[in-house]
Amino acid sequence: MSSFKKKIAVLGGGFAGIAATASLKEEGGFDVICFEKTSKYGGTWCYREESEEGVPSIMPTTIINHSKEMEL
Ligand SMILES: Cc1cc2nc3c(=O)[nH]c(=O)nc-3n(C[C@H](O)[C@H](O)[C@H](O)COP(=O)(O)OP(=O)(O)OC[C@H]3O[C@@H](n4cnc5c(N)ncnc54)[C@H](O)[C@@H]3O)c2cc1C
Predict the structure, then answer these.
(1) 8 Å CB contact between 32 and 24
(2) DSSP letters along the chain, please?
(3) Residue 16: its pLDDT value, please?
(4) Which residue of 4, 7, 14, 41 is 20 to 30 Å from 53, comparing CA positions?
(5) What is the mean pLDDT of each run of 10 residues along the chain (72 residues)?
């Protein structure tokens, strides 16, 4: 079997990018890198004190309640 890993670039570290990156890593056999243009992952769901052009942010009072944990 070949040890060659297909390189995959995921653009954007919002929820879609995080889920895609985690799924590809879980599947294995890929060399995955996620590019995020801001300093934090999470996209819309990440609270940013400073606004970023074209990237929405939740309010500081938003409470996120979810049942899963993901590691990038
Ligand atoms: C309170 C709330 C409730 C919501 N409810 C729903 C719902 O019920 N259903 C629904 O479908 N949606 C809902 N949304 C919309 C929300 O946008 C999506 O749920 C989800 O966050 C979209 O994820 P995404 O990864 O596609 O995009 P985003 O969260 O927008 O992430 C995109 C990421 O890509 C990065 N990026 C952009 N351009 C580049 C580039 N050129 N290079 C590198 N990185 C880049 C950005 O910085 C950002 O981090 C809700 C949003 C909020 C705040």
Answers:
(1) yes
(2) -----EEEEEE--SHHHHHHHHHHHHH-SEEEEEE-SSSSS-GGGS--SS-BTTB----TT-----S-----
(3) 96
(4) 7
(5) 86 96 95 95 91 90 81 64
* Whole-number pLDDT of residue 64: 81
Amino acid occupying residue 51: S
* Closest ligand 1 atom to 40 CA: 49
Q: Is the dihedral of CA 24, 29, 35, 41 positive or negative?
A: positive
Claim: this prediction has a pTM higher than 0.70: yes
CA–centroid distance, residue 31 to ligand 1 (Å): 24
Q: Is 10 in the pocket of ligand 1 (CB under 6 A)?
A: no
